[in-house]
């Protein structure tokens, strides 16, 4: 159940709360990447605080930050 909640939080943070323009700009300007990471972190934190044991939350959060950072370097 908690993995489904994390997937839902990821989809909400990446697609519902961020426009296509913002998604494009996060690869070009660092401030948009920081904004993206902040929105993502808030959504994951809220979902995890309400529903999920804390140890399982770190894996997708760290993975997303890692991928977003290195995607920017391309």
Concise synopsis of the structure shown:
Helices cover 85% and strands 0% of the residues.
Strand percentage, roughly?
under 5%
Helix content: over 70%
Could you tell me the radius of gyration in angstroms?
Answer: 12 Å
Count, helices: 4
Number of DSSP E strands: 0
Largest sheet: none
* Mass-distribution shape: globular
Q: Quote the average pLDDT.
A: 77
Which series of helices and strands comes N to C? HHHH
Flag low-confidence runs: none
How many angstroms separate the termini?
Answer: 34 Å
Question: What is the total number of structural domains?
Answer: 1
The SS-based structural class is mainly alpha
Describe this structure in words.
The chain is mainly α and 74 residues long. The chain has one domain. Helix content is 85%, strand content 0%. The chain has four helices and no strands. It has helices at 2-16, 20-25, 30-51, 54-73. Helix 1 packs antiparallel against helix 3. It is globular, with a radius of gyration of 12 Å.
Give the helices and strands, then pairings.
Elements: H1 2-16, H2 20-25, H3 30-51, H4 54-73
Index terms:
mainly alpha, 74 residues, globular
